[in-house]
Give the backbone structure.
Amino acid sequence: MFLVKCPWCGWREQTEFSYGGEAHIARPTGTDEISDQEWGDYIYSRKNTKGVHAERWVHTQGCGRWFNAVRHTVTDVMWDSYKMGEDAPNPPKDWDGLSSRDELEPSEGK
Amino acid sequence: MSQTYRLNGKGRIDRSQPLTFTYDGKAYTGYRGDTLASALLANGVKLVGRSFKYHRPRGIMTAGSEEPNALVQLGEGNRTEPNTRATMVELFDGLSASSQNCWPSVKFDLQSINQKFAKLFPAGFYYKTFMFPASWWEPVYEKIIRNAAGLGKSPMERDPDSYAQKFAHCDVLIVGGGPAGLAAALAAGRTGARVILADEQNELGGSLLSDDAQIDGKLALEWVAESLAELEALEDVTVLRRTTVSGYYDYNYLTALERVTDHLGPQDDDSTPRQRFWKIRAKRVVLAQGAIERPLVFADNDRPGIMLASALRTYINRFGVLPGREIVVFTNNDTAYKTALDAKAAGARDVTVVDLRDDPKGALVKAAEDAGIRVFKGYAVVATTGKHAVNACEIAKLGDDNRTIVSDTTALPCDIMAHSNGWNPTVHLWSQARGKLNWDEAQQCFVPGFAGPWKPVSAGSGNGAFALKDCLSQGYATGAAAAKAAGFGSGDVPATPATDDIEYGAMRMVWTVPGKKPLGHGKAKHFHDHQNDVVASDIHLAAREGYISVEHLKRYTTTGMGTDQGKTSNVNALAIMAEIRNAAIPEVGTTTFRPPYTPVTFGAITGQNRNELFLQKRTTPMHKAHLDAGAVFEDVGDWKRPWYFPKGKETMDEAVMRECRQVRESVGMLDASTLGKIDIQGKDSAEFLNWIYTNKWDNLKPGRARYGLMLNEHGMVFDDGVTTRLADDHFHMTTTTGGAARVLGWLEEWSQTEWPKMDVYFTSVTEQWAVCTITGPKSRALLSELTSLDLDPETFPFMAMQEGTVAGAPARVYRISFTGDLAYEINVPARYGLHVWNALREAGRKHDLCLYGTETMHVLRAEKGFIIVGQDTDGTVTPMDLGMNWIVSKKKDDFLGRRSFARSDTAREGRKQLVGLLTQDPNFVLPEGAHVVEDVKPKPPMKTLGHVTSSYYSPNVGRSIALALVANGHNRKGDTLSVPLMSGRVEKVTITDTVFFDKEGTRTNG
Amino acid sequence: MKKYSIFAIARNARNHHQDWERAWRSPDPKPSYDVIIIGGGGHGLATAYYLAKECGITNVAVLEKGWLGGGNTGRNTTIVRSNYLWDESAALYDHAVKLWEGLSDELNYNVMFSQRGLLHLAHNVHDMQEIGRRGNAIYMNGIDSEFLTPEQVKEMVPIINLNCRYPVMGALLQRRGGTARHDAVAWGYARAADSMGVDIIQNCEVTGFKIENGVVKGVETTRGSIGANKVGVVAAGHSSVVAEMAGFRMPLESFPLQAFVSEPMKPIVDCVIMSNAIHAYISQSDKGELVIGGSGDPFISYSQRGSFDQIEHVVGPVIELYPIFSRVRMLRQWGGITDVTVDRSPIITKTPVDNMFFNCGWGTGGFKATPGSGRVFAHSIAQGDMHPIAAPFTMDRFHTGALIDEAAAAAVAH
Amino acid sequence: MVDAIHPGVTADTPLTAKTPVQIEGLSITELPFLGKITLRGDAGDKGFADAAKKVLGVALPTAPMSSAQKGSIRVFWKAFDEWLIWTEADGQTKLIADLRAALDGVGKAVVDLSDYYTVIRVSGSLSRDLLTKGCALDLHPRRFTPGQATGTGFHHATIFITLVEGDTFDVMIRWSFADYLWDYFADGAREWSA
Ligand SMILES: Cc1cc2nc3c(=O)[nH]c(=O)nc-3n(C[C@H](O)[C@H](O)[C@H](O)COP(=O)(O)OP(=O)(O)OC[C@H]3O[C@@H](n4cnc5c(N)ncnc54)[C@H](O)[C@@H]3O)c2cc1C
Ligand SMILES: NC(=O)c1ccc[n+]([C@@H]2O[C@H](COP(=O)([O-])OP(=O)(O)OC[C@H]3O[C@@H](n4cnc5c(N)ncnc54)[C@H](O)[C@@H]3O)[C@@H](O)[C@H]2O)c1
Ligand SMILES: Cc1cc2nc3c(=O)[nH]c(=O)nc-3n(C[C@H](O)[C@H](O)[C@H](O)COP(=O)(O)O)c2cc1C
Ligand SMILES: [Zn+2]
């Protein structure tokens, strides 16, 4: 039961959200030109990262909006979330997955 | 003779409230404030159960929730509960309990024969046996094992009580209301922070309830009372008694079980919940859970009457029970001397201390000796005797190697033995929160180390700070710090009051106290896990066999896997393993701490979510009419949909046949309100639909409707429905009932994440519209009676929509048909649904209107070969497989799923394709799911070509009809294949196309 | 390997059980092996066993980063069955069930495989169609399958509430289905493999590969580098992590899945009961605790714990189906990391790196396949070519589209 | 849908058959037939914002979870481009027409949801105790203030909840879940009804 930070509504119960898988996978254009291999990779192949993971969420029960978030998949601590189309607010390289950005940089939080 | 062992004038029980209870059918008395355990001890009952494996007599070992032994079956009938810890059951009038895991009685238990063969049941024996002959495993051996399995008995009736759940939020949650927890609550509460303080006992005070410690020169319990009074006066402080914090989950989400009425006994009605399950989201958490005394592992340390030193002290001081007359206290440390002193002071005839240490120096040792207590120094208890309770122990001088005894044995008669091997801080919740543990070499215990991501803080003896002064100061400090971290107060720490702590001497660690014979020889057993009957020699055996990882040790011997989860046994077990491995204790490590801290009632986890409230029953605005009409309902997703409307004594078949005929002869009406409906607006709506559906949408005219198939990116059909263009930039989409939420999610996902620039907006309007579908040749005549609309087929053709009124209500009427007959789907705002349904029904009388349900709908659509997504498709079916190439636009560059068609397997010839099947026997209805084969073999295995997806008797076709997915089916039209059934019958079938009725499609116009 | 039996116990009892030998050695790694198996779960250990037993390859090491069987093998609800829908799956899982049937004997280790019967309940028309199809499919594959009426269900499970929120309309029974003692499977395979010379090396985490010209030559580990002619990866929840070390991706996502047990009670549930519409499955172990599972968390995570709400989602249904358990208590909950494919079928495959093989994607349901998976994987590694039963499960299917979609067929729109 | 509604047409809500709960400290009633409208558009587009304000009498709130009120019209922020508008019972027909007219070309969508949802009013000193039996939001008066509103969950249901004032909450629920939510509330109130 972790918390997810909606860029608009703030930190809420994860159960209010739906998970949308790995972020930043654009649908290929010119699908007729690409190989079966590339197409298959687009549909099925995922980083499945152990560690810092950029992923999509939608605030199903709240505002209904999709957004992206960066989460540590071992601690389940969410570093921060960001709106679709924005660049990922990457945590510091040595981020231990123990604190969210709002905890470490309280001024920027909320 | 009752309560012989009750002490006069001592304890926190309420002597003005005597209570009667029964144990194993015998009546006893006790007092309000007793636990079942203290009341039994007051009455001289020591034998309370039989152990799991060897069925050894067992008694009460502790006075808290760590109890491994004294598990009883509480209550009777629909309120019975297995495995209840007698130490945690508060006595109430009329309580009845019985011993478990024994037959015929706890005194004479037939299975205690197991003890005789104990040598044949070392750890893991079942992995090595019961294999020959193999055929005996289930019928014989496993039966024997299962007969012996389990402890108490499950209730066999429905639970008459109710349960509740509660979400709570706080700034600071404090677990444990001993001195540390109370101090933390005071420090945090005074800042104005929202504080929850939870303790699993009925009273706050923790170990002070059993103690005579002083704070500020007064009895500590006075400080407790003052602190509580202050806390309860603070508006934002909640004090929860009888509330065990059971789980520590991510982001400081903690669960707690509050026992609301358990201590009152069965309630007359269930309006007050029996237990309340708290789900607390805390900003900060202070863990002040205290410490659990560690038992000594010595020979036959499990006899009734042998208990932890702190437990005995609790029975004396808190419950006013001195359960014996001659008491031996066996210890490796000073704290147990308090027990000896208190026992002596309470009037025990004889108190003896057997101290493992050669030269204990603490002040308490001296005090004991001064009080006339005999102290054997450097001695160990090497044996105990007594059948149903301990009657003596034998002691001997312990060698320097800790492994041998170096003197003759001396017998000490005793009726109670108390023992102590030091203390383990209660680090369960800390560990559940991903906190790490450190090994405290001086105190020989694990203490909280690095806090995990949720940053709890630990205080008091749970933090390895055993002196009262440190408990208080850590409590104040952590409370203040936690409040500050949550945004309250300055972090200033209140001053710690004075205490009367005494210096303790060092301990002597003897993880296995030697017996008279080498470990594993002879009959004596050194228990470390009392509940699961695991003994020190089992650990040696496990090590010998290579199960040396602590996790293997646990699983091979089952140590720590009982209902107590090894609260008293785990550290002993791994310390013994460390000795064997010649490794440091932290190197062996602990097993993983998992929730719950103590077992949690399933009913409480469920709360109100049961019976009628287990899951919503979604119904349409016309539901009442369906009930009145005697509908039988079908569960479709969460919806209750009329399945059929039997008349009189009609069977389902008869009703469905009648409905099917009547619809095609006159007119039928179906409640189609559950279909998913999505309002789509925006300039790019049509373009968006071009992506979502396989066919083209930009050329659809306003007021017109079109059928569409939706594919996932694998190219497989996942939903279908009719979508109507209301205006250039406005569509009304329908989806399957079960697919509504998924489709809306699908649209939102693509529009928000892939094409955010598109101007298109989706709103679910499923429940905004109630839908009465009327269909059949007389549907136009029926509708014309109630509407202002011009129903002329010229002005209102097939696949068109018009707005007007029906039965006086505003309506959108769609001329679309899932039966192939003339049909109107009348959509009205939900509030008018019942009215319009009733009006149509009334007006329908003269048109011979019949109500029909989903079953008839399914038959009628199958007659026309219309698919049902999820029945005729299964997520592996393309539009081409369905023979619906016509709906796949060749003009569009791309749409979702399109690229997948070109993959080799998807493009392959001979895929499973939807076809019609006609049985040789026209009256035989194939079972859905039956498989189609080319070659029938006498028995399976047989290579199959596919399966029957839909199958009905069609009264309108006058025979049975079926749809099937058959390999290369489209090229097999006219072929005869076979369907071998599980019953042995083989039915020949002919492959046809999928339309069985009105092949020309002339009936849509009525 | 000294044989286990009641006589051996009696003999040893006389000597106070001092003379039992180690179930497996704990050797230091050799410089190189013919085959290295990464992952000491049931599948990895079974693979090593069959390599040694049936393929004549005994110069094998199993490298396990923690303790044997500490992955999903040690945390599953132990359900064994072979009533899968598609022919390919049925062949694979029934191959396993057949091996289970003789496994205790073969390993001389009682894995307590108990064919107590397994029920799939159907709660609505769609469920009935689903079990109808699956029951027939299984029957046609020559595997045992029976349909039960609600009355027959009640007879098998007297404590069930047939009239729950979604009434029980029928059930599919596989009598050969049941449970096994999960830890014993790992230990039994380890002991038997060890006795044939396989080195079982615990606390040895693989951290990288030595790959030359696209051919694997060995592995880097926390205990040094070890050479290998062939490598079989059987790392379950961590398969993606290992694949990344080798430079490619597996079409997997790792989700937390939880299970929990009740306090032990005298047995009253004598078969395994699964239910999709009311999502919970339950059995009672030979120790007496109810073993209960449900669905997993819907997000990837390597936390090996999972969320409490998933536990609630399972307890509710349990009380709905078996109201008498309301006063029974939950004793312990835990989680595993399941490696899930989009078609819910495993991947047994060669990889872009020569001589490196992967066996993964068993997700929430691979325990039952342990012997079969190990055996076909061992043969595939030994042959350098896929065993016929394994052939449909290669990773190519994610490019050709030839999915074996056990998921699509079970959960669909209505 | 401008046709006049025929006299004699009867209307229902999903809770027509329920009896309000009125006990000490707690009242549970339905607010039937409130007009409920979803409005979509770009708050940054001045044309849109002004037109909406003109019709509604109040500016569209742009802070998450906030709302604005003018007379019987309440406007809730639902998402950055979505607002939920409540108006008096049966007021939606005219308001929708007005919005459509005013927003033509600048608005993105106006949808009538008056029957999709109904609203349950929960008030009294026990209202928070009742709501927190299923709602995980922090409803403490310091944390959830009058006028704040948001979508969230209540066990199996999705709800939209707002604090009117003091101890009075309005909870909006889909028609087909209203029965479930109501029964849940009524059952939850039993512990205080003795
Ligand atoms: C809660 C739960 C319930 C389940 N219920 C069932 C059920 O009822 N029936 C059923 O059939 N299946 C069930 N499953 C699935 C089943 O448990 C698994 O599919 C099966 O156990 C997988 O076995 P394995 O040997 O492949 O994996 P594991 O047992 O997980 O073994 C993989 C091993 O690889 C090791 N490893 C990983 N990375 C490395 C590395 N870099 N170096 C060295 N070692 C490494 C791991 O430590 C682990 O021990 C369940 C799973 C869970 C979690
Ligand atoms: N070696 C020693 O000298 C020694 C050892 C132990 C205790 N003590 C004395 O005991 C006192 C310890 O004070 P303390 O405050 O640390 O502990 P405590 O034992 O007084 O209080 C801990 C409280 O936490 C409660 N608790 C534990 N787990 C809980 C859970 N999961 N949910 C709810 N409640 C839970 C217990 O019921 C108990 O009341 C001091 O007075 C100390 O001197 C001394
Ligand atoms: C089939 C099965 C039965 C179990 N029964 C018990 C049990 O009776 N008591 C217990 O404490 N744990 C039991 N466990 C849980 C284990 O203690 C442990 O939680 C699980 O193996 C996961 O390991 P971990 O918690 O150490 O991570 C059981 C696990 C399984 C898979
Ligand atoms: Zn949001």
About this structure: The interface with chain D takes residues 8-10, 12-13, 15-16, 60-65 of chain A (CB under 8 Å). Chain A has one domain: 3-104. Helices of chain A lie at 36-44, 101-104. Strands of chain A lie at 3-6, 10-13, 18-22, 52-58, 66-72, 78-83.
